[in-house]
Amino acid sequence: MQQLQAAIHGRKRRQEVMSDVGGRFIPFTSNMEDNSTDAGFQFTFFCDICHEGFKSRFIESSTYKKRGLFRGIGRVAGAAGSIAGGYVHGGHDIGYAAQTGGDVLGDKFEGQPPEWHREHEKAFEIATNEAKGHFKRCPRCHKFLCDNDWNEEAGLCIEDAPREAVEVAAARADKMKQDIQEKAQQTQVFTGEIEQKQTLCPKCGKPAGGSRFCNNCGAPLGMIECKDCGAKNPPGTRFCGECGGKL
Questions:
Q1: How far apart are CA 124 and CA 59, in angstroms?
Q2: pTM score > 0.85 for this model?
Q3: Given CA atoms 167, 165, 145, 87 in this order, what sign does their dihedral have?
């Protein structure tokens, strides 16, 4: 009698716990996504660090098959692109259809019969047990993470125990960039002379500015052409720099 009462109490307790998450099995991590549709059940569990994930295999709903709600082979075929489980990179499926068929089959949970919800709960538990083997839990920060973010030697996540080889390589790269910057600062690039030049008007002798005519007297500041050889000479020149002729 006591065993029977204990069994009933345990069953009630499990139902109470499941009701905390809408009647569903409690997963090992809350960082997950429910990809289920009317036609079946599938779930994706994500790494707490890099957010890559593992998608469980698709479990077809027997309740949906019995109801016979397929709306056409062509439309349902688009929903079958995600039925295979596997890894999901960067929050997006790799090798799967862009959608899981929710737009084809309507709202996922609204109006579903109790039999469907029981199937969903069982499929969730199967998917959770399936995904557990692809994640590790860091004993220090308690995050669930994939192999990419797990330091096998330290038994911790890479945030709490970075991989030595990776950190050494990153530090060397940072130091190399720093050395390049310092070397560049010590390298002389410009070898010319920095001097200030100004044009004096050949007529009034005052600074003429940078225009074609003097800012003070209005005299032209263009080059003087030699009438003997045709060479161009600066304003104010009295003799040609090419032939020596008088300008």
A1: 10
A2: no
A3: positive
